[in-house]
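Hi D.,

Good news: the full-assembly prediction came through. Inputs first.
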Amino acid sequence: MPDTAQPLPERRLPLSRERVLGCAVDLADESGIAALTIRSLAQSMGTKPMSLYYYVANKDEILDGIVDMVFNEIKSPSPAGDWREEMYRRAHAVRSALKRHPWAVGLLESRSSPGEANLRHHEATLATLRAAGFSVQMTAHAYALLDSYIYGFALQEAALPFDGRDTASEITAPIVERFSTGQYPHMIEIATEHVLKPGYDFGDEFDFGLNLILDGLSRSMR
Amino acid sequence: MPDTAQPLPERRLPLSRERVLGCAVDLADESGIAALTIRSLAQSMGTKPMSLYYYVANKDEILDGIVDMVFNEIKSPSPAGDWREEMYRRAHAVRSALKRHPWAVGLLESRSSPGEANLRHHEATLATLRAAGFSVQMTAHAYALLDSYIYGFALQEAALPFDGRDTASEITAPIVERFSTGQYPHMIEIATEHVLKPGYDFGDEFDFGLNLILDGLSRSMR
DNA sequence: CAAACTTTTCGTACGCTGTACTAAAAAGAT
DNA sequence: ATCTTTTTAGTACAGCGTACGAAAAGTTTG
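Then the structure:
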C-alpha cells in the first residue's frame, strides 16, 4: 500500500500571510519581541526560514503586520453611543490589548506606516468625537490627549519589571534595598505606603487619569 | 628624529565611559538607534570595536547608559517652587529632551532598570508634588498621569513621519491620496481643516492636554 | 498519461551583528 | 630595568535578515 495518504504524521497547516502573522504574535507574546526572528518563527511553524518570504516581503512587514493584528483585537467606539462611555471603553480596550501584547507599544515608535485596522480604529474614534459635538480643533486636541495618555500608560506598564504573576513586593524589595542610601526618600515613601500595600495594582491608576481627562474634555465642551 | 611625539596626526581623545556614551548618543541622534552598533560606534570614535568593552560591559549597558544621558539633560523640578509651574516646566523639559532624542522613548519600554539621573529626576518630581500638599496616594496618581501623558505624547511625536524639516503637507499629501476611497472621512477632515493649515505644529497640541491635566490635578487638591 | 505552466517551498551563501578569548601595546610604579 | 596595571586590538564564532536560484508540489492543458 504505497499510495495511502498518511494522515497522522503531523499534517502541517498550509501557510498563509494570516497564519504567519498570527504565529508571529504568539511567538512575540511568549518569548518577547527580540526572540521573534525569521528563523525562530519558521521553526515554530514547522517550516524553513525562506518559506515565509513568499507571504511577506521582509521582516519589517511582519512587524507592521503584527501591530495591526493588535489593533484588530480592539473594538472600535461607536459614534452612535454616548461619547464619554465610548471613549472610556475604548481607552480600556486599547490598554488591555497593549497589556496582552506589551511589545506592541515599543513598535509604535519605530513603525511609521499605520495598518488598516489601526486606521479604521482611529477613524471611528474621530467620528465618535465629532458626532458628540466637538469642533474639528477640539477633536484633534482630545484625540492627541487621549492617545498620548493611553499609549504612555501602556508604555510604563510594559516597562514594569513584574507582569502580574509576582507580587510587587518581591520585585521592589531588592530595589528598595539599593535605595537605602537615603537618596530617594519620596520613592520609598510611595513604595512602602502605596505600591507595596496589599492589593495594589498599577493598572488601577489608569482610571484616575482617564476620568480626570474625560472630565476635562467634558468641561471643555460645555 | 625618531622619538618626537607626533602631535598632528589626529591626536585621539582618550576613551572613557562618558565619551563612549556621549558618542553613542550623538550617533543615535544622527543615524537612528538601529545604526548604533558596536562597530559603527567604534569607528565614529576612531577606535576598534573591542576597545569599547573596557568601559562598558555590553551593548545593553550602552543602551541603559544613553537613556540616562537623556535624563541628565533634563532639569529637575524644585520642591521649593510653585508646583504647577514646576510641573509645567518639567513636562516641557522632558518632552523637548525626548524630541531631541526620539530613540529614547522606544528604549524606555525595553530597558527596565532605570539609571541614576532617571531616579534623581523622578525623586525630585515626587518631592515637588508632596511638598505641594498632595497626599501620598494623590502623588502616585498625579505622577502616573503626568508621566503617561508626557511619554505617550513623545511616543506619538517620535512616530510622526516628518521631523520638522518637511512641512506636514508634503508628507500627508500622498497619504490623503491613499484615503481617497472615502473610507476615512474624519481623518481627512482633521487633516485638511486642521493639520494642513499653515503654521500647524503637532507640538502645540501638547499644551492643551498638559493644562487640562494640571487643571484637573489642581481641582483634585482643593 | 504526459507535458507545460504556476504556485509554493527551501538550500546555499553573503554581509551584518554582539562579543568571548587572547594577546599585544602603553603607561605607571618600583 | 623590571614588574604591574591599564588600555587597545586581532581573530573567531554563532546568530541575524535575506538575495538568488533551484527544487518540489499543484494545476491546467494537449
